[in-house]
Amino acid sequence: MGKLAIKGGVPVRSGKSFPGWPQSGQNEREKLIGIYESGNLGGGTEVEAFAERFALYSDTKYCIPMANGTVTLEMTMRALEIGRGDEVILPPYTFIATLSSIIFAGATPVFADIDRETYNISPESIAAKITPKTKAVIAVCVGGRPIDVDAIQKVTDEKGVYLIIDAAQGVGSAWSGKSLGKYGIAASISCQNSKNLTAGEGGIIITDSDLIYNKTTEMLNDSCCYNNIYQDNNMTAFQAGIMNVQMDRLDEQITKRMDNAAYLDKRLNETGIVSSLKIDGRITRNSYHLYLCRFNYEKLAELDVDRNKFIAALNAEGVGISNGYMPLYTFPCVSSDYTEKILGSKVDVSPLPECEIASYKEGAWMYQSVMLGEISDMDDIADAVIKIYENIEELRD
Amino acid sequence: MSTKILLDVLSSGTWGTVGPCMMEAGSVLAEYLNMKYALITYSKTSALEVLLRSLEITCGDKVAVASYSDPIDSLTAAAVGAEPVFVDNFDDVNDVKAVISDKPVDLKNKDIILIINAGSDLKLDCSNARAVVYDLDPYIGKGGAVVTNDQDCYYSAYSYHTCGRSIGGGSTTLQFDKIIGGDFRITEWHACLLKESLENAPESTPRKFKNMQNQPFFSSEYFKKLTGRV
């Protein structure tokens, strides 16, 4: 028997769990019953109330609630009449919805590499990928960490392409004191079941753009005369009502996650084997839907161990951590016959070096509910890393 | 009774992203309609879109629709990049990949895929269609369904509706195959209400058909771009 839990030792965390998700209470119960008894389950005043509150929260002119955070991206592109023959740049280190929304809008996705200090799309890589066909960049706030708005907006402004911020994981995040809806043409947020503001499913566009508001509203509403497509991607009363209640906890939860993340950054950066992402003072709020960290894969290689073994050992110690996204360009669906038929062209699936390292060697993440734990929970995470590093020889084959 | 079902969903913590109520609602609806499979989605337009995508209908394909029809027939076909072909009847339709009809029809060309948009009429005989799309708004407030006896069609629609995941793949497993899926999932709040609402099924609500052929959208540059003609 070894010292490490994966080798039969006593785990750092035993009989302890991190907070569960989603959270709810009496206010959610009353809201559900109230909506059901009102008989208006489809939309109406609940959706209007949520939109008004969230626009105020985001300091944006508009909040456009929708069914989910995939259609919010797709509808944003449709509002801009981005479609077949156009190119949209995105990072490969993200959830598939960023990609599928582009393809469903009919545009060709173009992958740009990431910056491994932030795991967000690299402004330099965006600049190198822009062509006369480029209509937009979808910059993803991975884990909720705001993109480098200053650098990316400089590129998109200079090149005359739209910046769409995919803040699916970034509800409440802010850059230089402003919500993400204040930058680019619009920001898109997901409220899927695991997200920091959730009703099981849901999506939100926040924007100051009259064009985005007018066009998406036109497409969302059935009418007597059709100047555009009609897609009933509307948010329902249940979704809006629940999220309105969930908003009461949002800021307090973000503060808790940020405090824990700052403490964990410091502890992990002292371990010598796992480190935080780059700390950037311009990020004034980070939702931490995911807490991302980096393994020193070169040092691990010298010790004849890799990231995946280390992660398995951490899981055995009671730390829920996983190895993150695989590059989207490796997914067979990107190169499928149907995708090619939609686009009328093939997607460039050439590997991108920084994403390759992030996906296969270095990156790892923990979910947001872990960051709602106590300081002692953060200590457990760092202590487990140290324990494994000190007994690394047990992980060698 | 329904408030208890809703509160059970709340306490379960699974409020969406393919929960047990969504799967059960599919089984209940399929059984009610005496069909093999039903996929519940968040709206009627999302149901038709996911069906068209599961049949891999897009740019370069033509879809026949009635000139006077439910607007979603032609508009959803265009949304996936297909070109709607407006006809007065489907008797001699040819050279199209699919027909979207608002009522049962007998197509002479059996190679053409027949899709019926039945609205909220659960009594309509749609037995000769590849798949049927329903509007569940009158039953659960907001929702749609794709109903079929074709297993391949159902499995494909399921994957397209939940980010490309396969049935049984779980809600968090990032295992995608060849399907570029979107998100057409209904919440558990609405899905959990279907079983009870079917027991008290309302009469079919009147359809809002329109003359679609001359709608301004079909003359727009965006329509041409969507369908690959620019």
Supply Rg of chain A.
22 Å
Question: Beta fraction of the residues of chain A?
Answer: 15-25%
Note the run of SSEs of chain A as H and E: HHEHEHEEEHEHEEEEEHHEEEHHHHEH
Strand/helix succession of chain B: HHEHEEHEEEEHEHHHEH
How would you name the oligomeric state of the polypeptide chains in this document?
heterodimer
- Quantity of strands of chain A, as a count: 15
- Please report the distance between the alpha carbons of the first and last residues of chain B: 54 Å
| Alpha plus pi helix count of chain A | 13
Estimated helix fraction of chain A: 25-40%
Measure the end-to-end span of chain A: 15 Å
Q: How would you explain this protein's 3D organization?
A:
The complex is a heterodimer of chains A (397) and B (230). Chain A is an alpha/beta fold and 397 residues long. Chain A has helices spanning 26-38, 45-58, 71-79, 96-105, 123-129, 149-159, 210-220, 237-269, 297-302, 307-316, 337-343, 353-362, 375-390, and strands spanning 62-66, 87-90, 108-111, 114-115, 120-121, 134-140, 162-166, 174-175, 178-179, 186-190, 203-207, 274-276, 283-285, 290-295, 363-367. The mean pLDDT of chain A is 97. Chain B has 230 residues and is α/β, with parallel strands linked by helices. Chain B has 9 helices and 9 strands. Chain B has a 7-stranded mixed beta sheet with strand order 1-8-7-6-5-2-4. A two-stranded antiparallel ribbon of chain B has the order 3-9. At the A-B interface, helix 1, helix 4, helix 8 and helix 11 of A face helix 1, helix 3, helix 4, helix 7 and helix 9 of B.
Provide a brief overview of the structure:
With 397 residues, chain A is α/β, with parallel strands linked by helices.
